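Sequence, please.
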């Protein structure tokens, strides 16, 4: 029987990260870069945190995990990495480097972790419907920015060709506008623009409203797509559309979901003050119409022995 190589630590996490990136899913990669024992987290431990708050891998025990989950979701939302120091502030004195964020955790082992969390965000996905010169120019410009683009003929486009994070520009310019825009509306993309005059746009949207399409979704259609540059060439219109998309993405005002999920929220342990999961794993205890959550059975027992000392200290994060 042949021997097999032992698994490389963290390799499975990196393989999953590659799969998520290829699928266009945003996530954060957390890596333990330093530890102070005793701590269940080890230097080099890695974990993926999805936009929905799912953790894959190992970053530490019940003390560190809720804090890392919370911070990771903020990193995904902001797109800015963070370096965390998890422990009690008194453990570090005045030796915390500038730019490092101290996150208090009341771990019974009195260990500490330094965790680097970096966002891994998919390249923007732009769907351009139409085969006009403008559509081809816009496709070329978006590719130059490193965006993923799909250039689709009007008759070949369906709602399945765009996702909720996609940006869709209908540039059919009179060749099947209504049908293409109807499919695009049904996809509910993060951005939807129609190339055409306001008069033409009003006619198309009115037709779709008569067909019973959702009024709120129709209200999100930008007509004309792009920044208003007045009368100009198709090349400049493509620039105007791309400029609008870049501006909306940079400002964070792009419509559509930015990481919706069903992950459990956070809460504060009323006994030790650390962040815990507000769910079944947080050892919930109902008292006087309020539910409290705890990091350990010890904290829960302490609360039960003297609830008056701790009641109302627990709160959602």
């Amino acid at each position: 029987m042949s021997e097999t190589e032992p698994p490389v630590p963290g390799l499975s996490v990196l393989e999953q990260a590659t799969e998520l990136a290829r699928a266009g899913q945003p996530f954060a990669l957390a890596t333990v870069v330093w530890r102070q024992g005793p701590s269940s987290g080890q230097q080099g431990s890695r974990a993926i945190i999805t936009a929905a708050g799912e953790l894959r891998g190992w970053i530490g025990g019940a003390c560190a995990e809720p804090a890392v989950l919370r911070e990771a979701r903020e990193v995904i939302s902001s797109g800015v990495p963070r370096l965390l120091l998890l422990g009690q502030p008194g453990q570090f004195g005045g030796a915390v480097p500038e730019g490092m964020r101290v996150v208090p955790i009341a771990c019974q082992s009195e260990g500490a972790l330094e965790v680097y969390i970096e966002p891994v965000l998919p390249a923007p996905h732009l769907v351009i419907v139409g085969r006009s010169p403008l559509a081809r120019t816009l496709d070329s410009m978006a590719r130059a920015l490193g965006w993923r683009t799909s250039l689709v003929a009007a008759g070949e486009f369906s709602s399945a060709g765009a996702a909720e994070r996609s940006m869709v520009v209908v540039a059919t310019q009179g060749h099947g506008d209504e049908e293409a825009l109807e499919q695009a509306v049904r996809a509910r993309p993060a951005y939807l623009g129609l190339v055409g005059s306001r008069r033409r746009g009003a006619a198309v949207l009115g037709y779709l409203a008569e067909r019973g399409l959702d009024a709120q979704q129709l209200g999100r259609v930008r007509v004309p797509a792009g920044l208003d540059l007045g009368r100009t060439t198709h090349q400049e219109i493509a620039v105007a559309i791309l400029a609008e998309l870049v501006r909306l993405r940079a400002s964070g005002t792009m419509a559509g979901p930015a990481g919706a999920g069903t992950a459990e929220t956070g809460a504060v342990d009323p006994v030790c003050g650390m962040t815990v999961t507000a769910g079944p794993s947080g050892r919930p205890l109902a008292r006087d119409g309020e539910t409290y959550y705890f990091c350990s059975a010890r904290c829960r027992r302490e609360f039960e022995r003297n609830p008056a000392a701790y009641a109302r200290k627990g709160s959602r994060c």
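The first strand starts at residue 27 and ends at 36.
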